[in-house]
Design goal:
The chain is mainly beta. It contains 3 helices and 14 strands.
């Protein structure tokens, strides 16, 4: 199996989402003490078709680890609420609470907002590189018909596919093999969760689950949110810096999902 370089998965237009790769991990600073329960929560998973390695929790701010928080949004229990600007995803629960997951967000994750429905769920989903990417990197021709699921696949262990009616929004919630990118704005991709978290979320939500993706002007929906660093007073960076994005014929490469 060929190794896929981080330049393989690059941004496209909001209408077609690119795979999730990032730049070199930033230096890890000493952070707050990690609750011991998280070492079990993010331990190695050996019951999957592919072994999911334990997460190095020193690479992630603990605020982005899975936890129940107070929830003040209007959405009903069972709804997923994605706040890409604060790097959180909520599964709304009864009693004014939500299960909160930290997410990493690529530019495509900021390119769409609104209401949708999960019409498809996939375990160890397939990724298909576009023809333009294969022309630039001929070694990807092996995956012209789709890269099978696995730990080398940029979609990670699970994917949730959002539709409006019968129309695929091309907005994806999926796993990542780069857990250090959680809580970060990354070069490309949509909404990525730690593999242990996307497996947990995938198990909790059925087909038909409603999803609300918040826009840049939306108020916070949980009282204990911390805004991940963005320039500007409102915590939103409309000009998210994206580096290492070669173009072909003036157009950024676009990855195809299925």
């Amino acid at each position: 199996m060929h190794s896929i370089s981080r330049r393989s998965f690059l941004i496209g237009a909001p209408a077609a989402l690119a795979a999730c790769t990032t730049t070199t991990p930033p230096p890890v600073a000493q952070g707050p003490r990690i609750d011991p329960m998280y070492f079990d929560m993010y331990d190695e998973i050996t019951t999957e078709p592919y072994s999911v390695p334990a997460v190095d929790l020193t690479q992630i701010d603990p605020i982005f680890l899975r936890q129940v928080v107070p929830f003040a949004g209007p959405q009903e229990a069972g709804t997923i609420v994605v706040d890409p600007y604060r790097h959180f995803l909520y599964l709304v629960m009864e009693g004014g609470q939500a299960m909160r997951y930290g997410v990493g967000v690529g530019r495509e994750g900021f390119g769409w907002s609104g209401n949708a429905t999960i019409r498809r769920k996939a375990a160890w989903p397939t990724w298909t590189p576009p023809a333009s990417m294969i022309r630039r990197q001929p070694e990807l021709a092996e995956w012209a018909s789709g890269m099978p699921g696995g730990m080398d696949n940029p979609l990670g262990a699970r994917a949730l596919y959002l539709y409006q009616g019968d129309r695929d929004t091309l907005y994806r919630i999926h796993g990542t093999n780069e857990p250090w990118s959680i809580g970060q704005s990354v070069s490309s991709g949509c909404i990525r969760l730690i593999n242990q978290d996307i497996i947990d979320l995938h198990r909790r939500v059925p087909i038909g689950t409603r999803v609300t993706v918040l826009g840049s002007g939306s108020p916070r929906v949980a009282s204990h949110d911390a805004v991940a660093p963005f320039p500007g007073d409102d915590g939103v960076n409309p000009d998210l810096a994206v580096t290492d994005l070669p173009e072909i014929d003036g157009q950024a490469q676009i990855a195809v999902w299925r």
